[in-house]
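Exam revision sheet. Question 4 asks you to relate a sequence to its structure. Input first:
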Amino acid sequence: MSRKPLAAPGNTRNGLKWRDGRPRWEPSPASRKAGLSGVDLRAAGGAWLSRGEAIDICDGRTLWAQGIREALAGGVAGADALADLSVALDGLRPPTDDFSRLRRSLVADLIDRARAVVEARPDASPIRGAGPRTVRAMTEGYLADERILRRLTPSTLKAYTGQAKRLNARFGNTPVAQLTRRQLVDWYEDALLDELTVATANQCMGATAAFLAWAFDQEWIPASPAVKLGLRSAGGRLVFWTFEHERAFVAWCDGAGFEDVADGVAAGLWTGARIGDICLADLADMAGAAWRFTPQKTVRKGQEAMPAIMPALRSRLDRRAAAALKDTVRHLAGTPFLWDFRTNRRHDTKSFYYRFKAAKALFLATPEAPADFAGLRVQDTRDTCITRLFLADVAPARMWTWTGHSQKSIEKILRDHYLVLREEGALELAGKLTAWADKQGVAIA
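Answer key, structure tokens:
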């Protein structure tokens, strides 16, 4: 038996029209006279909005329409309305979740009209839901573009949203077409590098380049100025986990109630996986002789990693499996490997970071802690795995199948970050060079 369409909500005076479950916002006669049009209330995938969502969107559209009408009316009241519109536009911030992005896209035409009214451009035409072609409008348009959002990972979206604030603080009201390469270079050299690390400053410029590429695609600018900016290279950390570090810290964690931290550290050291990928792994994923997965950062490229499960990690997996049998929580979709038993939830990167930070602080106060342990981070486990593979005589050209790095990244890690620290590696090469010289009849004692 087919279901009847939901009845229209009652007592709404916000332009909502409901036709057999198909919501639409219709402007009032006054709004229509002002040139405002109606819009079907659909999600990005084409599904009709629910009652609550439709009412929320219609409330917003009606409020913007009222402000536009009052501003166009002129006189003292119109001047006040114009000032209110200006404040509302300046207060707009990039959407931060799926519904706020949907809401922004469904009122974007009215926001554009409001900007045109404020800037006395009643003939302005909407461009993909953006307002005047300022840097702020560019970042808002980028962060509301469904095609872009489908490609970005949550972590990248979060980073780009933060970098958009920095860009807007500097150039928000600047027309995109007037932004020059020289301005970007000066901002990078004179401001960003004074306030931020090289890595964060470079991330900000990378986000800026992505925003400007979007503006180019929308035909706002003939070319992007974010080219050949001369960004500095972030220096290598020049630290890695030794076997002494690993043995001391893992043993202490197991005895101090931080088994989950020991699990994550061991997995990072022996697989080379990022902690975010380890957090997503289930025990079943690692049940075989190898763990095959696609790192989050290479999902778009389809670049897989497949480290073997080494004995040091297998013992951690067995420990976790035994503990899971005693859990009060049953996992229907799969038993997580990294489990926060304090909250009865799967670890994510944030929860594991704070858990590791707490364990590290306590460990450093013990006599078991090596003197140089304070400089170690969870992130260093990934590159440490590369170092261990190299010391085990694995060719760099084969390491990518284990860790999911690109070969270029592997070579950079080995060249810039770690080999300079391996005195024994240098001594080994010296021995080989001496043996070769002896065969040539050259005494180099």
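Marking note for examiners. The longest strand covers residues 16-19.
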